[in-house]
From TrEMBL:
This is DNA oxidative demethylase AlkB. Residues 116-216 form the Fe2OG dioxygenase domain. Keywords: Dioxygenase, Iron, Metal-binding, Oxidoreductase. The gene is alkB. The keyword rRNA-binding does not apply. PROSITE patterns: FE2OG_OXY (PS51471). InterPro entries: Alkb (IPR004574), AlkB-like (IPR027450), AlkB-like_sf (IPR037151), Oxoglu/Fe-dep_dioxygenase_dom (IPR005123). Its cofactor is Fe(2+). One of its GO terms (molecular function) is broad specificity oxidative DNA demethylase activity.
């Protein structure tokens, strides 16, 4: 529940629990969408989007960049968080305020008032790009949630279970949708299907996904 700015009344926001501990806040990022996209553009001027290599030598179809004290990277040596952007050797840019504010607001609404992300991974999908089923387990404390924010074209999210062999359910994620992944869902397998062709008024032919994490 959040308080209405003018009437100081609680606002009933539409939240669904999609899995054990996962809360969807539909459209929470809509009011700040332009500020978020401007922030992504600023981050990407300093730390450009790039297609990283997986340890097995595949090129990821989503382009990525990061902001925060730590950034998530993958290359021939493996998956890890590190303080420097491998492209420049410089520190990652700080998490811009509109992004940090939204992540903390969403986490608080889902029951994590003390969430202080130190890493934000920004994924950019163009038509045909996808992310296969995986777990996020490069972080130190799985008691900390992950907050995800979707902007632009819709994409079908696949939400599995604690084991890879559990059949995933499909959840469409649209512009402005925010999800807080806490509790057992924090370690559930997940991915996104190929992005379908389309055009979004704010982002054009792409979808951005921001994931806010406490890595250390
Ligand atoms: C459930 N990103 O960056 S967002 C990722 O659309 C990632 O870019 C997808 O999976 C994307 O790691 C999915 C939703 C999401 C993100 C992190 C999770 C769901 C999650 C971590 C744990 C459980
Ligand atoms: Fe993930």
């Amino acid at each position: 529940m959040t308080m209405d700015l003018f009437q100081n009344q609680p606002v009933a926001r539409f939240t669904e629990e999609v899995g054990e501990g996962a809360r969807v806040l539909r459209g929470l990022a809509c009011d700040s969408d332009q500020a978020l996209l401007n922030a992504i553009t600023r981050v990407a001027r300093q730390a450009p989007f790039r297609h990283m290599q997986t340890p097995s030598g595949h090129t990821m179809s989503a382009a990525m960049t990061c902001c925060g004290q730590l950034g998530w990277v993958t290359d021939a040596r493996g998956y890890r968080y590190q303080q420097e952007d491998p492209l420049s050797g410089e520190l990652w840019p700080a998490i811009p305020e509109p992004m940090l504010g939204l992540a903390q607001e969403a986490a608080a609404e889902a029951g994590y008032p003390d969430f202080r992300p130190d890493a934000c991974l920004i994924n950019r999908y163009q038509p045909g790009a996808k992310m296969g089923l995986h777990q996020d387990k490069d972080e130190q404390d799985f008691g900390q949630p992950i907050v995800s924010v979707s902007l632009g074209l819709p994409q079908v999210f696949q939400f599995g279970g604690a084991r890879r062999n559990e059949r995933p359910v499909n959840i469409p994620l649209g512009h402005g949708d925010v999800v807080v992944w806490g509790g057992p869902s924090r370690l559930f397998y997940h991915g996104v299907l190929r992005l379908k062709e389309g055009e979004h008024p704010l982002t054009g032919r792409c979808r951005y996904n921001l994931t806010f994490r406490r890595a250390r």
